[in-house]
Amino acid sequence: MPKPETLNFFNRVYEVTKRIPYGRVTSYGAIARYLGAARSSRMVGYALNGSVNRDDVPAHRVLNRNGLLTGKHHFSGTNLMQQLLESEGHEVKEDKLQNFEDKFWDPVTELGFS
DNA sequence: GCGTTGACCCTCC
DNA sequence: AGGAGGGCCAACG
């Protein structure tokens, strides 16, 4: 995360989201904690709403704490988010990612504190 | 500048 | 164990 001061909340969310490795997923709360705004998890989703138009931000790799595809409704197609996840080797059933904890990627743990 | 809104999360019945 | 409700905080109108 370069220059946190000059980057607003949205851009910081983008930076973290872009660093999610292929085949891994994370949660809104994890990103929020990494940004130091543990109570602003809703804003993470709000920010991703603007980033979904950006093709450089893999917003489909961000789920809620239960591994549920809560934001699938904001994608172009209803099942686009699920198909993107399935194309990365994930297993989605009933809008919920299977084996979520195993594929979970915590930026605080993986990237460490900024 | 105030009131509403939300791709969430935690706590309490 | 499961559901309902409140809290948070930044962006939007």
TrEMBL record:
Cited Pfam families: DNA_binding_1 (PF01035)
Residues in Methylated-DNA-[protein]-cysteine S-methyltransferase DNA binding domain copies: 8-89
Keyword list, A-Z: DNA damage, Methyltransferase, Transferase
Protein's UniProt keywords contain rRNA processing: no
Transmembrane regions: none
Gene Ontology molecular functions: methyltransferase activity
InterPro entries: ATL_DNA_repair, MethylDNA_cys_MeTrfase_DNA-bd, MethylDNA_cys_MeTrfase_DNAb, WH-like_DNA-bd_sf
NCBIfam families named in the record: ogt (TIGR00589)
Name assigned to this protein: Cysteine methyltransferase
Species, as recorded: Leeuwenhoekiella nanhaiensis
